[in-house]
């Protein structure tokens, strides 16, 4: 029977494991964004959100059963004592009872977010980015702003040329203000998934961040419009350099906007497998002409037993 099995063991003793998780939660409150393995991130997020009865010491297990950020929102002396018994660094407590209490005053819960990132070099362990929502370096806020900029640019390019869009510009704040008021099934400039993510990140932030996300979206639109121009200039310079050296053009590594494995350089016609291999792939060989061979003589009694 699986009773009372709440947390992962992490191949550590109970004291080592509990101290490690408390250290992760303290670092999360201190930096608001940490990078760790995925299993540790899941358990640390659970402890930061809600400390259950399976906990570290007898005092914590019997008294600290509420969300730690909720204790900061209460602001009482009893809540301060219970948070102090859990957090390892006393310098985090003022941040917990002042900054986080104001930031999450209207949010009922869900203070953490986990993002899957690349695997760790060496043991290939899955890594994750654990962060507090609405922090100054919010990863989802940045990615949503880029998705909004890309969708707005895609919608403009349906009716105008890139040069025309660059000259006229895209008024991202006005478009974002209209998109926030639309429903999930309404037709607008953004995709439904992008609009849903935009409404999620603005739900508890209010309208004060509309200008900020509009500015980030506009910057990303300008970056997307400028990338082909820069890439074209680099291609021209690389082609001139390769002609002088007699090298293949698709093996050149462009600085700044270099091609990654699986991404095609403009004008490249290689296969998907060749692109996925990246720099490890062999250079493309020229096609060889195959001469037409005469058909073989059929086997019969005369050919097998010549006279």
Based on the model shown, name its key terms.
307 residues, mainly alpha, 3-stranded antiparallel β-sheet, 3 strands, 50% helix
Describe this entry's structure for a reader.
This protein has 13 helices and three strands. The protein is 50% helix and 7% strand. The chain has helices at residues 14-31, 38-49, 58-63, 68-74, 77-84, 92-103, 139-157, 162-168, 172-180, 192-202, 210-245, 272-277, 301-304, and strands spanning 33-37, 112-119, 126-132. Strand 2 (112-119) and strand 3 (126-132) form a beta hairpin. The chain is extended and about 80 Å long. It is mainly alpha-helical.
Percentage of residues assigned to helices: 40-55%
Percentage of residues in DSSP E strands: 5-15%
Largest sheet data: 3 strands, antiparallel
Q: What overall form do the CA principal axes indicate?
A: extended
Strand count: 3
Distance between the termini: 87 Å
Q: Given the helix and strand composition, which structural class is it?
A: mainly alpha
Along the chain, the helix and strand elements come as HEHHHHHEEHHHHHHH
- Compute the average pLDDT: 77
Major sheet: order of its strands? Answer: 1-3-2
């Amino acid at each position: 029977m699986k009773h009372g099995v709440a947390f992962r063991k992490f191949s550590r003793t109970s004291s080592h494991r509990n101290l490690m998780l408390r250290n992760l939660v303290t670092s999360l409150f201190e930096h608001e964004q940490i990078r760790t393995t995925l299993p540790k991130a899941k358990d640390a997020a659970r402890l930061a959100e809600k400390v259950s009865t399976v906990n570290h010491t007898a005092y914590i297990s019997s008294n600290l059963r509420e969300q730690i950020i909720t204790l900061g929102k209460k602001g009482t002396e009893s809540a301060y004592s219970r948070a102090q018994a859990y957090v390892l660094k006393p310098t985090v407590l003022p941040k917990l009872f002042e900054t986080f209490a104001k930031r999450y005053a209207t949010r009922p819960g869900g203070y953490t977010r986990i993002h899957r990132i690349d695997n760790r070099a060496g043991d290939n362990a899955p890594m994750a980015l654990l962060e507090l929502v609405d922090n100054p370096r919010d990863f989802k806020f940045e990615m949503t702003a880029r998705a909004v900029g890309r969708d707005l640019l895609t919608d403009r390019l349906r009716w105008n040329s890139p040069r025309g869009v660059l000259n006229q510009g895209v008024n991202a704040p006005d478009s974002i203000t209209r998109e926030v008021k639309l429903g999930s099934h309404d037709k607008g400039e953004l995709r439904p998934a992008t609009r849903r993510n935009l409404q999620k990140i603005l739900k508890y932030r209010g309208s004060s961040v509309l200008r900020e996300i509009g500015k980030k979206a506009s910057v990303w639109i300008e970056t997307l419009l400028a990338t082909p121009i820069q890439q074209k200039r680099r291609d021209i310079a690389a082609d001139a350099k390769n002609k002088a050296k007699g090298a293949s053009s698709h093996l050149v590594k462009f600085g700044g906007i270099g091609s990654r494995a699986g991404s095609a350089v403009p004008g490249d016609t290689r296969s998907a497998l060749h692109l996925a291999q990246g720099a490890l792939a062999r250079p493309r060989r020229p096609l060889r002409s195959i001469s037409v061979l005469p058909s073989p003589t059929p086997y019969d009694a005369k050919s097998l037993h010549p006279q």
